[in-house]
Every structure is written in C-alpha cells, then in structure tokens.
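Pasting as-is:
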Amino acid sequence: MYDVVIIGCGITGAAAAFELSKYRLRVAVLEGENDVAQGATKANSAILHAGYDPKPGTLMARLNVRGVELAAELCAKLDVPYRRNGAMVLGFSEEDKATLESLYHRGIANGVKDLRILSGDEARALEPNLAPEVVGALHVPTSAVCLPWEYCLALAETAVVNGVELCLEHEVTGLEKTDAGWRVETEKGFFETRYVINAAGVYSDKLHNMAAPADWHIEPARGEYYLLDKSEGTRVSHTIFQCPSKVGKGVLVSPTVHGNLIVGPDSCPVEPHDVSSTAKGLGTVRSAATRSVPSVDLRQSIRNFAGVRAHATTGDFIIGEAEGAPGFFDAAGICSPGLSAAPAIAEYLVGLMGEAGLSLEKKTDFKCERRRVRFRELPESERAAVVAANPSYGRVICRCETITEGEILDAIHSPIPPRSVDGVKRRAGAGLGRCQGGFCGPRVVELLCRELNISHKNILQDRVGSYMLVEETKGGAHHV
C-alpha cells in the first residue's frame, strides 16, 4: 500500500514528488511516457514569470510569486541552469499604456518587486533593437529563464534519490475507490494507495472524471515556436512580451540559458496530442515577433516545435481534494505560469493533504543536492584535472555544444536514466546545437548500445515506437 500515488511527471508531478520525498511516506509516480517532462514541460517558453499578470487573489497569483522565489533556490541547489535576465512588456498605443498601468498595479498587489513603467525611449535605451513604434513598457527585473526539462528532471531525480518510485510507461487506465483509499489501474498492473494526486496535464480532466463528477474541463491550446541559432542570442537581453490577451501572454522574444533566442508562441485550440508545427501558426508568430523586434532574423531557425497548454474552464489553477472523492487531489489546469509556480503548487498541495489526514513526518536524512559536470563551462585551469581523473571528459561528442563523452555517460547512469537519444539530449545537451544531432547522433546511439548492452535496432529517437532504424520489406517499412 502506497501513501500517495502521483499521476503524471511533468513539472507539477515532479514538484509534488520532490515535496513529498521530504517526508516518511511511500510514494509512487506513474507516467505514461518513457521519460519525465514529455508534455508541456519540455515545450514551453522556459520563462519563470515574476507574477505581474495573474489576477490578484487567485491561486495563480499567490503561487506564481511564491514559486519563482523557490525556483531560484532550487535551481541553485540542484544545479539547474537559471538566469535572471528580467522582462519587458511592450505597449504600442495609448490603450496599451493603460494596460501596462493595470499590469503594474496588479503586480504590486501580487507582491512583485521593483516594477516600473518606462517610456518608449527608456525601453530602447535598455534594448536598442526594439521597434520604434514602442511607446512604453513595463520593466520586470525579477523575471528569469531556466531550462524547464532539466528543472523537472532535477526535482524528479531528487525525489527518486530520496525513495520515491518512478514508474515510466505506466499509463493510468482506471481508478476505483476502496475502503483504504484508491486502486489505480495501469496497463502494467495496479497500485493500492491512500491518496492520489492528479497531475496529468492536458489529460487531467479525464483522470478527474474517473474519480468524481465533472464540473470543469481542459481546453488544450497549442503554441508554436522558433528556436534560433546562437548568432541571434544577443538580439535582446530581456524577455520581450507584448500586452497579454485572453488567450495568453502573447508572442515573446527571449534569450535562453543556452545562449539561443526563442520566439513564440501563438495559441490555437487543438486535441491534447497535437504538437504539429504549421505554416499558419509560425506565420502568426513571425508577424508578432517582428512587431516587437523588427531585426530578429528568423532565417536562423534551427528548430520549430510546439507544446500544448492545459487551460481549465475555471480560469485558475485547480488544486485540492475533489468533491465527492476523498483522498483524490487535483493539480489541474496548470497552464502558464505553471512552470513558475510548480514548487509552490507542490508546497500548497501537500499542506492540503496534511490537513486531510496525510501523515507528514519530516525525514532527518533528506538529500537536496545535485551537481553536474558541464565541461565547456569549466575554467581552463580545471579541465586538465577533470580529464586526468576521467579521460572520457576529454572526448568531445557534440561539437556544436561541446558536450563530452563523460557528460553523456553521467546522463546514461543518472538516477533516472534516459531511454532514447532525445533523453540523452535533455540530460546532457548533445544534439541541442546548430546541427540538431546530425553529427553527434550516431555517437550517442553507440554509447547507449554500449552502456546499456542493447542492440542498435532497439534504440529510440524519443517516445515509445520512435525507432532509429527501420527496414523496407514487401509489407512496407517496419522496425528492424
């Protein structure tokens, strides 16, 4: 019998697992995919929002501001790339100026620090590449960027190190109330638990409906992006927003922690699984981005991608025990600022579960530290010593990002080992650069085969079924 079963291991589920791993509990995380962070967590803007946008008094507002404070601490402790670069929200008209004033006062009410309104000239003094049509801006110095999938992975790894069981490829197929709590059914067996956390993202309404009557649902919205080469990485230093609308915070232009430039997203209603990139969506992104930063060169795109956000019909985060389903807790509708709020969502949720009867006895041996070797970031004076101790750090596998064999081996033998080439990319960075794995991909395959003692024919690009090698037969192409 488990104390808690968490369904879903995106940023919300991982943060909940991290928080619960501080206590003497038996916890399992069930994830339908073959890796963590496979949904919106790996396909978003990577922004840790300061908290000026949510309506005061909402869970979004409260947990956003608390969450970004915790994120700064956690990224430092868990060695997650983080950069407090600040943000600007641009105005192009008198109407926009009124919106900027409203956002300023909303931010003050939410507790956001150091906000100020800039004139167009003041904004361009900080960001010379802004459009001449910009007439004002809200300056948000506490906004930051991070590496979202590594943030999620770091929280999940720390939970695993502290005793949480992570069950990948365990899609939940049913829920049943029992005298002791809940029976959670998966394709690979069932789990008996006292409490359930529903952190299933765009599928959270379907999970909720297995346990309790429907009183809300998820309206999935796809956002498409350009990721630009590092040659565009200094086009702006702040995250550049436009005034938000009812469909989101609008198209942004922002540096990333890797030194690239990210541009997007648009917003389009879709089915939960639809992460396709479209000419129409990318055209919308292009038009909006060049309105803010006319000189941005989208020809330097090295990748287009899309993510699906989990908008709830309530307009706010849905966090708490479901009515009529004791022991079943929702953490649903976690759209933006979900990445920013995640650790605060977990903190708040676990507090509610404690009030509902979950025993919360703190561990005395909780481990909260994580360190990675990032060879290219080491001072020259330290590199020789690192290579002398482990020669694999002296063999560069990914030329674009200067990722070494040693870093890839560290990823393969980490607390949550990758099950695919893209899993290695998300952990070590090999394949993130200009050639997108064209050079290093075959070498990563070789390392996975060697270290995991598996055949080339079983190596995946990413998700289950995405085999790297296929063969043509009379019946068509199939996995070898």
